[in-house]
Design goal:
With 159 residues, the protein is an alpha/beta fold. It has 4 helices and 7 strands, in the order E-H-E-H-E-E-H-E-E-E-H. A 7-stranded mixed beta sheet has the order 1-7-6-2-5-4-3. The structure holds adenosine-5'-triphosphate and magnesium ion.
């Protein structure tokens, strides 16, 4: 199932994040790909804030992984950007356990850890448009995410 939402402002992106958080479940895997500066970390922040996480959520580029333990759902934020040129055997740093874990796992630059991404995740490609708006292209093969896309479609139907 596919869905495209245009985000004209940060408020729109926050609204996407809020709705993703509302329907988040343990074991969810959300991948965020797209241009540099497109809004991947911005979306992750709004998801985290909407989950009720009070810590500052920032780009984990220099950490690769940040875990925000929280009830009822923890947020595991992976940024694979720095793993681009790393050999597969050296990427074995426990990310798979986190991805298969029981939180919401949000992954920036999933292409660089392609072999670890479950086929049934929810993928979002965020594209930066010429007018400054962002296209959020959602795509998933898994029915466990269909209701999330239906809900987002409803929220943005008049946008
Ligand atoms: N509609 C919008 N949605 C999201 N971010 C927006 C929007 N309009 C402007 N921005 C700005 O774009 C920037 C997005 O930066 P962000 O760090 O989220 O990008 P990123 O995709 O994580 O980049 P990187 O690939 O470097 O990790 C922020 O400065 C944000 O304020
Ligand atoms: Mg980022």
């Amino acid at each position: 199932m596919k869905l495209t939402i245009i985000s004209k402002t940060i408020d729109d992106t926050n609204k996407i994040g809020e709705n993703l958080a509302k329907l988040a479940f343990r074991g969810e895997v959300l991948t965020l790909s797209g241009d540099l500066g497109a809004g991947k970390t911005t979306l992750t922040k709004s998801i985290g804030n909407s989950l009720g996480i009070k810590d500052e959520i920032n780009s984990p580029t220099f950490n690769i992984l940040k875990c925000y333990f929280h009830e009822p759902i923890s947020l595991f934020h992976i940024d694979a950007y720095r793993l681009e040129d790393v050999r597969p055997e050296q990427k074995d740093i426990g990310l798979e356990e986190v991805i298969e874990g029981n939180g919401l796992c949000v992954i920036e630059w999933p292409a660089f850890i392609d072999e670890m991404i479950p086929f049934d995740s929810l993928s979002v490609e965020i594209l930066l448009n010429d007018d400054g708006s962002r296209s959020f292209n959602f795509d998933t093969l898994s029915p466990k995410y269909f209701h999330i896309l239906e809900a987002l479609k409803e929220v943005f139907k008049n946008a």
